[in-house]
C-alpha cells in the first residue's frame, strides 16, 4: 500500500514538472514572437515613411540622390496609390502642393501603427557617422532647451566644439550646468521685432509660431506673449564678413521656425555637411512650414534626405518627424552608398 502511494506521488510530481516545463516553453516562445513582431512593426513604420518621401521626390530629383536612403523593399512603392502618393510633374514643380501631398500621405500611411520612438537611436546614428569617417569640428545646437541633445551627442563626438543656442531666457540655469558654451538668442529669417509665445509649464513649445494645442490655447492663462528682438544665424555668428567659425553639424528644433532660421543663416549653411531638423507633418504650429516645403527648400540648397530619426504622435496620429540631411557632394553620401552596397555613377 505504502509503495503504491509513493509511486502515485512520483507520478504526480512527474506530471507537474512536465506541465511547468510546457508552460515555460510556451512563455519563451511568446516572448520571442513578441520581440519579432515589435521589430517588424518598427521596421515597417520606418519603411512606410521613407518610401512615401522617396515616392514624392522621385519626379523632382535624380535617382542617385535618394538611393542612399537605404530603401531596400521596393514592393512598398507599388502599394502606394498613385493619386495619393505620386505627384505629377506639374504638382512637383509647386513646393507648397508638394508639401501638402507629402504630409498627407505620410500621415495616412503611418496612422495605423503604434510605434512611437527613435529609429534609429540618436547615439547610434552619430556613431555610424563616426564609422564613416565623419569628425565635425563645430556642432551647433539651435533650440537647445536644457542642453540634453548636446550632452548626449558630446559623448560620441568628444573632440568636437559644441555651441548651444536657446530662445528661452529661463533655460539659462540648466544650460550653465552642462558646461557647454551657449547663447540666449531668438533666431529667424531677418532681424526684426516679433511676437514670442511662451508657457512656463510647457516651455518646449515656446515659439514665434503659436502652438495649436491646449498648452497654448487662447484661454490658457499660463500663456503669455511678448515682443522680442529677433536676429539671424548669420548675424549671430558674424557672417559673411567676420565669421566666428564654420559650422559642420547643425541641429535645429525650434517649434516651426526651422526653415526661417535656415533662410536667415544661408551663409552659415554653406559650410554645413550634416543637418538635423524637426519637421511637422500636421499644422502643429500655426503658420509654420510643413515637412514637404522644408525638404524641397533644402534640396535646392544641395541637401538630400539621409535618415529618419524620430516619430512623434498625438492620439496615435503622426504629427512630427526628425529628419537628418547631408550634402550630396559630401563623402558621407558616397560612403552611405558603399555601406548599402549600391553603386553610383
From TrEMBL:
Residues 141-304 form the Methyltransferase FkbM domain. Keywords: Membrane, Transmembrane, Transmembrane helix. The keyword RNA-binding does not apply. The keyword Signal does not apply. GO terms for molecular function: O-methyltransferase activity. PROSITE patterns: PROKAR_LIPOPROTEIN. The chain crosses the membrane at residues 12-33. NCBIfam families: fkbM_fam. This is Methyltransferase FkbM domain-containing protein. It comes from Polyblepharides amylifera. The lineage of its organism: Eukaryota, Viridiplantae, Chlorophyta, Pyramimonadophyceae, Pyramimonadales.
Amino acid at each position: 500500500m505504502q509503495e503504491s502511494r509513493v509511486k502515485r506521488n512520483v507520478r504526480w510530481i512527474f506530471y507537474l514538472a512536465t506541465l511547468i516545463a510546457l508552460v515555460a516553453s510556451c512563455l519563451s516562445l511568446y516572448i520571442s514572437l513578441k520581440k519579432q513582431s515589435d521589430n517588424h512593426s518598427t521596421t515597417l513604420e520606418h519603411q512606410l515613411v521613407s518610401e512615401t518621401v522617396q515616392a514624392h521626390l522621385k519626379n523632382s530629383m535624380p535617382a542617385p540622390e535618394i538611393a542612399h536612403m537605404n530603401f531596400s523593399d521596393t514592393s512598398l512603392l507599388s502599394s502606394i496609390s498613385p493619386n495619393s502618393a505620386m505627384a505629377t510633374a506639374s504638382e512637383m514643380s509647386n513646393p507648397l502642393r508638394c508639401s501638402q501631398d507629402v504630409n498627407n500621405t505620410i500621415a495616412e500611411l503611418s496612422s495605423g501603427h503604434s510605434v512611437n520612438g527613435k529609429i534609429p537611436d540618436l547615439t547610434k546614428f552619430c556613431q555610424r557617422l563616426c564609422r564613416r569617417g565623419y569628425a565635425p569640428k563645430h556642432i551647433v545646437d539651435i533650440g537647445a532647451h536644457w542642453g540634453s541633445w548636446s550632452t548626449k551627442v558630446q559623448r560620441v563626438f568628444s573632440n568636437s566644439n559644441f555651441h548651444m543656442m536657446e530662445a528661452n531666457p529661463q533655460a539659462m540655469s540648466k544650460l550653465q550646468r552642462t558646461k557647454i558654451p551657449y547663447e540666449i538668442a531668438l533666431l529667424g529669417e531677418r532681424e526684426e521685432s516679433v511676437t514670442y509665445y511662451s508657457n512656463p509649464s510647457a516651455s518646449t513649445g515656446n515659439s514665434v509660431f503659436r502652438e495649436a494645442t491646449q498648452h497654448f490655447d487662447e484661454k490658457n492663462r499660463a500663456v503669455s506673449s511678448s515682443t522680442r528682438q529677433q536676429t539671424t544665424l548669420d548675424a549671430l555668428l558674424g557672417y559673411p564678413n567676420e565669421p566666428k567659425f564654420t559650422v559642420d553639424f547643425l541641429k535645429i528644433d525650434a517649434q516651426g521656425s526651422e526653415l526661417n532660421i535656415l533662410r536667415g543663416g544661408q551663409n552659415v549653411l554653406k559650410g554645413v555637411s550634416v543637418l538635423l531638423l524637426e519637421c511637422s507633418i500636421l499644422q502643429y504650429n500655426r503658420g509654420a512650414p510643413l515637412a514637404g516645403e522644408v525638404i524641397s527648400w533644402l534640396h535646392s540648397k544641395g541637401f538630400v534626405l539621409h535618415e529618419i530619426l524620430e516619430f512623434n504622435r498625438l492620439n496615435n496620429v503622426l504629427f512630427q518627424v526628425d529628419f537628418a540631411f547631408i550634402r550630396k557632394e559630401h563623402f558621407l553620401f558616397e560612403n552611405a552608398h558603399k555601406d548599402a552596397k549600391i553603386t553610383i555613377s
